[in-house]
Amino acid sequence: MKEKEKSVQDIFIQKLKESLPPSIGIAEEIGELLNVSIDSAYRRIRGETELSLNEIHKITKKYGISLDNIFSNLGDTVTFTYTKLTDSETNFEKYLCRLYKNLKTMNSFSEKKLFYVAEELPIFYSFYTKKLAEFKLFYWQRSVLNLPNLQGAKFEFGIISKHLVELAHNCFNEYKNIPSIEIWSDVTILTITKQIEFYLESGVFKDKEDAFKLIENVKEMAAHVQQCAETNRKQKSDVNETFQLYNSDVVLGTNCIYTKVGDFNVAYISFNTLNSLSTNNSEFCEETEHWVKNIIRKSTLISGIAEKQRYQFFNTMHKHIEFSYQKINSF
User: Fold this and answer.
1) Most exposed residue of 46, 49, 60, 266, measured as fewest CB within 10 angstroms of its CB?
2) 82: in domain
């Protein structure tokens, strides 16, 4: 019985090692997190001292380690992690902080890659500029989460706290440092253009000129994505290829993010419009990776040398944006 418990603890410690950035020593991290000496931390690492339930809780809470990976999979049961979004702006801030922290953690590793299947505009591009970020934060909190303090409010720049807008924009700044493979469809861009049109037609804009400013920001964002696709790079300074873009003719049906950081994989499945369920369950991640690669095989690569396909894809995107501009202009 003792040997079995020790082997389970060994597995747990190994999962913790995989979750830690290379620059952080596991003994030092355990010592600080659990408020124990380095010697006591090493005894836990070696399995000489058993981790208590409270200690396991502290570690799993900070690093999102899925216990169903530790205690084996029970049939078709998978444990997910998520951040509650309803009720208050405070929860929404926690959501953005969690997103930012996850991106920062990924960037602390040298080996990393992110796959994004985008039925809707990827959340990171919603934060491409601070104006876009503020609009999306307002839209989500007012129309999706139905926060009481925003019901009946008109959109104008400055209505959302600078702290939240800055936090959201910083998420994009972190994302552009992560090598990514994205799968879009012809209608992915419509998410944000339709939302701008809807708010204008519903009288939610305090000033029509703000709708024009937002469409200009969408144009700027689309031009950025096109440039990334042309160069296979998220940033001009990237030495190696860091971006691939695919166009899927298949209805994607969901938004899904799959990340690979060293030997540590995490799958994020969208729900409730903008939130996500995350898990590092090995079987679920393997199935997610298989699904993502299957979508890629059925899609058309439009980055790099695929000039004709890329032109057709972005030409359609720019037409969608121009249509929204004309619709706003005639309103």
Assistant:
1) 46
2) no
pLDDT at 291: 92
Count the alpha carbons within 13 Å of 144 in the hemisphere toward its beta carbon. Answer: 16
Measured CA to CA in angstroms, residue 203 lies from 4, 33, 89, 194, 206 at distances of: 64, 50, 23, 14, 8
Does 93 share its domain with 60?
no
Q: In which domain, by residue range, is 53 found?
A: 2-65
Residue 158, SS3 per DSSP:
coil
Which domain-ending residue is among 65, 97, 116?
65
Q: Which helix (H) or strand (E) holds 138?
A: helix 130-139
pTM (whole model) above 0.90: no
Residues of the chain with pLDDT under 70: 1-7, 66-76, 87-88, 251, 273
| pLDDT score recorded for residue 69 | 59
Q: Distances in Å between the alpha carbon of 231 and those of 117, 127, 178, 302, 314?
A: 20, 22, 15, 11, 15
Q: What is the pLDDT of residue 3?
A: 42
Q: Report the candidate in 130, 189, 137, 183 with the shortest Cα–Cα distance to residue 160.
A: 137
> Do the beta carbons of residue 64 and residue 19 sit within 8 Å?
yes
Note the pLDDT tens digit of each residue in 234-270.
999 999 999 999 999 876 777 899 999 987 899 998 8
Gap between the Cα atoms of 232 and 240, Å rounded: 9
> What per-residue confidence (pLDDT) applies to 6?
46
Q: Is residue 204 part of a domain?
A: yes
Total domain count, the chain: 2
Please state, in angstroms and rounded to a whole number, the distance separating the CA atoms of residues 208 and 154. 11
